[in-house]
Amino acid sequence: MSRRTAKPAKDRLADLRAARAGEGRSKQWKSTEDEELYDEVSEDDYKKIVKSRLDRDDFIVDDDGGGYVDNGMDAFEAGKDYDSDDDEENEEERRKRKAERKKTKAALAAQRAKDEAYAEKNSITDYQPVVSNEKEQDFMSSLLGGLDSASSSPLER
User: Where are the stretches annotated Disordered (predicted)?
Assistant: First the structure.
């Protein structure tokens, strides 16, 4: 069955006028589906449901040796069986990784300091000849002197 139902043209026109008047289309929408998405049960009823699942835990007749098993327990209850040995191993691995990161950071810092010292020692100014102040002044005065002597009369067309 379709979720939409056909409305007479007059009703649709009235809805359109109301929407244009500022009422909005969201106020006109009405849900036709069931409002209950889940069943509310008491704690005792829930325990009965879980017990019935456990009673029929082997509901799969033949899975062709795939090894699928469902014991009827909820997924969030399955995570309670942890080994404490895993935690100790994880802690040791964490310490090793942390020490390794410290070594890596120290090696990077040493390499960076070495690179910076090399860059400071070999700067571009070491390769350029030093120009005396007198030569620079002579060069600038020759440039500016050439501009003063040139006439600035406009060209005729």
Answer: 1-42, 61-108, 113-132
pLDDT in tens, the chain (157 residues): 445 667 788 888 888 888 888 776 676 677 777 677 788 899 999 999 888 877 775 656 666 666 666 665 666 665 555 555 556 678 888 888 999 989 899 999 998 888 887 776 666 666 777 788 999 999 888 888 877 666 666 667 7
Q: How long a stretch of residues is the chain?
A: 157
Residue 69 lies in domain? 40-81
Same-domain check for residues 51 and 72: yes
